Amino acid sequence: MAHRPQWNVKEESPMADLNPTAASLLGFLHAGEASGYELVSTAQQVIGDFWTLTRSQVYRELTALARRGLVEAGPAGPRSRQPYRLTDEGRAAFAAWLAEPPGSEQIRYPLLLTLAFGSALDHDRLMGFIAEHRTAHEKRLADYREQEAAGLPDRFAAATLAFGIRYEEAVLAWMDELPGLLAER
Fold first, then answer.
1. Which contacts (CB < 8 Å, 24+ apart) does range 69-77 have?
2. Which positions ≥6 away from 94 have C-beta within 8 Å?
3. Which residues pair with 85 in a beta bridge?
4. Is-above-0.90 flag for pTM?
């Protein structure tokens, strides 16, 4: 089982003004130095199903974090990949950010946006979009169940995965109701 870092959550720091993208990068760097490319890959694997980080965001944030002294950039390696490592200030900033209450969620679900304007779209086309999304959600649920069966490194990963499973089950149940909800009355 991989070593999971224990973050020292202390009193508020002037470095607590991190955005979630920057904070997640600091969190990932607790495991050791990594290039921007490796951080993008880790983010996609660990949080990609519920938090979006683009490659350009990662590189922009790493540059800003280095300027603030929260990470240090090492010399470029193969394929011009530059490793970054966490500084003590970066650890403190991450701990301060982590100690703050998380903001409320905001659903950004493209299918819901399309559905909100569904009266302006051909019904069969809309149902096709829903079918495509259903396939993606079924696959994600199957992947989550495989991860659960394989075992997880700790209770925090298990709790996060449990949310993902319940979310996918709820979305699929909602999709089951859509034909009745969208039927003309």
1. 70/15, 70/22, 70/26, 71/25, 71/26, 71/29, 74/33, 77/35
2. 7, 18, 23, 26, 27, 30, 86
3. 72
4. no
Exposed, middle or buried, 26 (CB in 10 Å: 0-12/13-18/19+)?
buried
d(CA 98, CA 35): 23
Cα separation, 175 vs 62, whole angstroms: 39
Handedness of CA 27, 43, 167, 174 (dihedral sign): positive
Residue type, 89: E
Residues 23-50: tens digit of each pLDDT? 999 999 999 999 999 999 999 988 988 8
Count of residues making up the chain: 185
Rounded to whole angstroms, how far apart are CA atoms 61 and 23? 9
